[in-house]
Amino acid sequence: MGVSLGRIKFKVHYWPTLTFIWFVVTFVISYAVALYHDHIYWLFPYISDTGDLAPESCVFAQFLNIGIIFLSVTVYVRYREVDAVINGGLINSPATTKLNIVGLCLGWLKCLGLSLVANFQLNADYVSKLHIYAAMVAFLIGAVYCILQTVISWKYVILYRNATTGTSKLAFSMFSFRVFLVVSFFAAFISYKVCAYKAAALYDAKAVYKQNAQGELVLVLPRQYTPDIGGFKYKVASAFSQWIVVLIELLYIATFTKEFRNMRFREIRFESKYSQIYERTNVILMLIFINLFQSIISRHYLAPNPNVTTGNFKLGRKTFYFRVVLSVLFLPVYFICTVCGVLAITQFTGDSVIYWTPDDGGFELRLAAVFAEWILVLMELLYIATFTKEFKYMRFREIGFECKYSKIQQGLM
Questions:
Q1: Which of 126, 127, 197, 255 sits in a 20 to 30 Å window from 178, CA-based?
Q2: What is the distance, to the nearest Å, from the Cα of residue 262 to the centroid of all Cα atoms in its chain?
Q3: Upper half-sphere CA count for residue 299 (Cβ side, 13 Å)
Q4: If we measure between CA atoms, which residue out of 153, 159, 191, 152 comes closest to residue 174?
Q5: Higher model confidence: residue 407 or residue 329?
Q6: pLDDT in tens, 228-239
Q7: Per-domain residue ranges for the chain?
Q8: Residue 250 Cα distances to 149, 292, 386, angstroms
Q9: Any stretches that span the bilayer, and where are they (predicted)?
Q10: Long-range CB contact pairs, 181-187, < 8 A, 24+
Q11: CA triplet 211, 212, 217: central angle to 5 degrees?
């Protein structure tokens, strides 16, 4: 007997469109916030510049990380959709199977590159190179991914060549549109890089002295690329091309919507050893909550049904008592952290709380607050780690999808 999360009515063909909209909204919001705080010049900044400084960098990173989850799910569903068609005997090609696996790996590598872009901004010199390299890798891997998916799309054209006229034309139209997007991507990417090199060659802004956080004077270039700086037109053309490149890749992802209509999410399924116990003793498995509720739940495992053998159903008193201790200690430690933090702020006389020294006042209280904060985090992580024993009885089985072969086969008739 398997334990599942239940059947969920989930329309997977929403994912590509949701991914497209989410990324576009992310870039628009970060652009608006950066413009509001006068961190960028209004005319086509680079996308990275719109998420470089706080507070827009916070919006950029958080929203982009959520979008990466959407994208990774879309890439996986595309893999499962093509895999279902192959396993259903509709496409009999070992090469397509390999392309599908490579496409899945490349899609997830692109997600990793985007994660680096989101979380390592340009404003820090020691990570700016990582940001730039990650962006280039994400662009190029995304291009290769689109090429592979276009090749797979051609397999669909061959699949539907004997289908009804409408179905055949639709498959060929989708393939042609994807070819157009791939060609447009490379044209825009070349324009983006060439114009960027031209702008860099003509850049003539003068550095000025500014005071950093440590009070030192350092030479810095102006952040905004304004029309009075050499190469401005090339910079705008380069940034415009970059936006086009990103929109093309997102639009390509959105084209999966049609194929995903043939897929239906079924469930995430697990297998549990507890299921056998359930059948013999009618022991009710309770859902997992957090903190104190978890401790209450674990208390039920201390006195199992007498028909259950100790070896099959022994979670132990130590785990329960340990969870109780963690739950009880959490609130007083949190209270200490909050009170010491507030008192430390009231006694602070320095210039920056980031560089809080013993001479700034309230230093001992700050140390107590920080120590309590670390204890809180470690307690929550340790609580999560206590689930290990229960999880030993669980085994991941599958992420289930159902492919509507009937629709595909009807199109072939």
A1: 197
A2: 25
A3: 8
A4: 153
A5: 329
A6: 888 899 999 999
A7: 11-268+400-412, 274-392
A8: 14, 44, 41
A9: 12-36, 59-79, 99-120, 132-158, 170-192, 240-257, 320-345, 365-387
A10: 181/146, 181/248, 181/251, 181/252, 181/255, 182/143, 182/146, 182/147, 182/150, 182/252, 184/244, 184/248, 185/143, 185/146, 185/245, 185/248, 185/249, 185/252, 186/143
A11: 45
